[in-house]
Amino acid sequence: MPNSKSRERCETTLGNNQGSPCQKREIALVEILVLNRRVERMARSVETATVRQEEGYSGSPAPFVFFLAVFVFFLALAFIFFPYLGMEPQEYTLSILFVVVAFVSLMFLPATVAINKEWEEAIILRFGRFQRLVGPGFFFKWPFAESFLKQDKRIITLDVARQEVMTNDNISVSIDAVVFMKVMNTKDSLVNIQNVWNSVMKYAQTTMRDVVGNVELDELLARREEIANKIEKIVERETQDWGVDIISVNLQNVELPEDMKRVIARQAEAEREKRAVIIKSEGELTAAGKLEAAVQKMSNRAMYLRTLSSLEDISYDQSNTIVFAIPMDMVKGEILGLTAFATADKTTKTGAPRKRETRR
Fold first, then answer.
1. Which residues are paired to 132 by β-bridges?
2. Model-level pTM?
3. In this structure, are 229 and 192 located in the same domain?
4. Do the domain assignments include residue 148?
């Protein structure tokens, strides 16, 4: 239960706090998964290369040698049975027949040879059944009895067409992706599936719609790499019998409706204002704490001198009227002294006329 609660807490705070330990843990897990897939991919490549080295490509030149030998044999027979001068024309028939057979066998020589480029492999089908695998360079085959199918072994980029997908919170988004893949087993990619490139693209397109349809918009925008890795694992698991290796799947563009863009912009603006208010209030709280500590250390007269200094700092411009409120306890003694002095002065002034009247 604590693990599930902490996982839920990480999922809720991942999109808001970009530097949280939860997000760092999620990123580390994703990197570990990617590293494991790379190790598995390297092991698979080494295994394929080892099997290929053990089996070897079949490069027997028997078809070419056979038709070349037939050509030389019948050409020699044509010279042997070539009639001497002065013989009848009927005696030329056998020699002409041998020459025709020799040149027909010579015409079959180009059909026995084919060429693969450096990045190509081919399978040989004899009477429709798989016979052998051939690699780059020259290879030989029997005309009419054998045919071949080539396969590109380079990394292929498949663009998944843009799709309108409804997320789990009923928001329509337009999304597209790109798939990087490579053929690892030529026989399986040609025998087990009709068009491996189109099939992988269609399956990736369907998987993308299913995965994106099961997540909310905020999760889609915050966890694009994680969702792409999930699509990659599903496609790789379902296409393992097709002889291909899904290197990576990347989500390219996620476009939102215009009204949703405005809503997200307002939300981002409100979030920034919220952060500004929080930062300002925290600064004011810190300043208030510092001022309170300073007030506790300063006496009333020191505070009064500080007040006068502040008035001096802000009174350079004589066109301004300054109303400066100060606490009464700061000048309580001065006010009491001035009050007593004013009372004594008033008493003195009123006592003098009374004395004059008494004298009169």
1. 124
2. 0.58
3. yes
4. yes
